[in-house]
Amino acid sequence: MPSSVPAALYPGTFDPVTRGHLDLIHRGLGLFGSLRVGVARNASKSPLFTAEERVDMIRAEVENLPEVTVESFGGLVVDYCKENGISTILRGVRTISDFEYEYQMALTNRTLDDGIETVFVMPSEEFSFVSSRLIKEVYAGGGDLERFLTSAVRAQMVDRLKP
Q1: Per-residue pLDDT of the chain (163 residues; tens, 9 = 90+)
Q2: Catalytic amino acids?
Q3: Domain ranges in the chain?
Q4: CATH H-level superfamily of 8-161
Q5: Could you tell me the pTM of the whole model?
């Protein structure tokens, strides 16, 4: 039975949630046993979906995983972790440029609170290049999204972006 405090937080924008994100959720569960997915409310990124829509999408995708909780948050990730008793942040690293950014963020978070650790996990090879930004570009160019998104998320994205 999962504890009331998840072992780790997987924060992100998830706009939209991709098969790569879902892969990382499964990998995180293998490492930690329980996981909270934190959907960032960051209006400066001009998300396609509202935070509530993104939370609902992820919840629908992980409904068979009772060890995963999903909610939105605003502000600093370390503050959210402190407020919720979470001491580990899970982050995916696909490329060297991802690592450089994530490394800087992890050191910044450690400076803000040295009691919170960041764990980097690589995705499956088939998702090593997938990003929400790339998926939006593929869609805009008329490309097929089946390899990148589940059918439910794909339908919501097509509905949102239809002319």
Answers
A1: 344 566 899 999 999 999 999 999 999 999 999 999 999 997 677 899 999 999 999 999 999 999 999 999 999 999 999 999 999 999 998 878 778 888 999 999 999 999 999 999 988 888 777 788 888 888 888 888 888 999 999 999 999 988 7
A2: 21, 45, 94, 132
A3: 8-161
A4: HUPs (3.40.50.620)
A5: 0.90
